[in-house]
Design brief:
The chain is an alpha/beta fold and 411 residues long. The chain folds into two domains: 49-72 and 314-409, Aspartate Aminotransferase, domain 1; 79-312, Type I PLP-dependent aspartate aminotransferase-like (Major domain) (Aspartate Aminotransferase, domain 2, 3-Layer(aba) Sandwich). 44% of the residues lie in helices and 17% in strands. The chain has helices at residues 3-16, 26-39, 79-91, 100-104, 107-120, 131-142, 157-166, 178-187, 212-221, 244-247, 276-285, 287-290, 297-312, 315-333, 354-366, 396-409; strands spanning 49-53, 56-59, 62-67, 124-128, 148-152, 169-173, 195-200, 225-229, 256-260, 270-274, 346-352, 369-374, 384-389. The strands form two sheets. The chain has a seven-stranded mixed β-sheet, sandwiched between helices. Strand 2 (56-59) and strand 3 (62-67) form a beta hairpin. Helix 3 packs antiparallel against helix 13 (297-312), helix 5 (107-120) runs parallel beside helix 13 and helix 14 packs parallel to helix 16 (396-409). The radius of gyration is 22 Å and the shape is globular. Pyridoxal-5'-phosphate binds next to helix 6.
Amino acid sequence: MSEGVIVKGDVTRDALSEGPPLSSSMLNALEHDLNTLTRAGLRRKLRSVTQRRGAEIVVDGKATVDFSSNDYLGLAGDPRLADAAAEFLKKEQTGAAAARLISGNSPVHTNVERALAEFKHTEAALLFASGYMANLGTIPALVGKRDVIYSDALNHASLLDATKLSRAEVRVFPHLDLAALRQMLNEDTGKFRRRLIVVDGVFSMDGDLFPLDKLVPLAREFDAWTYVDDAHGTAVLGPNGRGSVEHFGVEGEIDVIMGTLGKALGSAGAFIAGSATLIEYLLHRARAFVYTTSSPPVLAAVTLRALEIVAQEPWRREQLWKNARMVRAGLAEMGREAPGEADAYIVPVMIGSVEETVRVGNELREAGYLVGAVRPPTVPLGTSRLRITVCSAHTEQHIEGLLDTLRKVLR
Ligand SMILES: *Cc1c(COP(=O)(O)O)cnc(C)c1O
């Protein structure tokens, strides 16, 4: 693995902790590690968030505009989704009571899988409890000891964990570097049984896209399989919101697509979409599918409603692009141009040090704006940043207010 990835995963442990005394009680050892986090400014705490209406939320009792969620289309607090849940629960159970393959499968699960396959233009789809579980279940089902995974250096943590769990060889290529990937594929020719290229469709920290149109021919040339984690692209990218695969015009050409339901779709859970054979295989082989209780069927009912809304209200995506352009233009004006496309809705503002990032985050929150203050181990040491996420529910007033406050608090 490249150094970048080691730093990304283990910075607090390796770089900051001198390690607890050899034999100490569990409490001592854990408190030692927690104190190390505190000294490094990396101690986190849970905030209480209530009353989500569009982008407006109440954080620890204070009215706040949320610029930190993944609720890109403003659906998480949409009363129509709450109504769908309430309707469903009048007639049906809350708990699924068993795994899907035992007695936990309900018609609404099957319906939503059909709808998701249709939405993604694939033959079939399979639900998982979350995106994390979908990755953890699927990648180790596809590749193992005699195989190799090629992984972008900025892939999501759940993909890293999945590659480790698979016990396949892992080759990390520099972010978006197709030439480096080509070289690795070339050098490995004939050495492995299966080869899987794993990438994020939209990278969760910088909002940039993997060029899938270039990936497809490369994978084909070297007989490698392709896996795209489209957590942040699903329901957002592409003319119909079908995701990064539609955006790049490669529908039907990616072997495995993972999409999440808890981001733009305002529900919860995730799915794998692909060929009927792939889905049938995962039904038997993905341990995170087989050995876990089915997600509550009400979530499937909510997802079905969300898919309808996404199809009926394309203006939400238009508004999202417009809002993203406005945020990015405002940042550029203050000399803080964010990397990425002009309408990319994940907007990083590089700061560098942990302390400064935390200070800016706190001052924004005091002014009524919640923005992600992203620190190690989520990003490498020295690259702490604000992560502004834009959503269709932001008004001009929300955005101008955020930009005004940023002008005041950024040094
Ligand atoms: C959020 C995210 C996941 C995990 O999805 P959950 O449903 O939240 O578990 C996986 N991959 C990427 C790229 C993500 O952004």
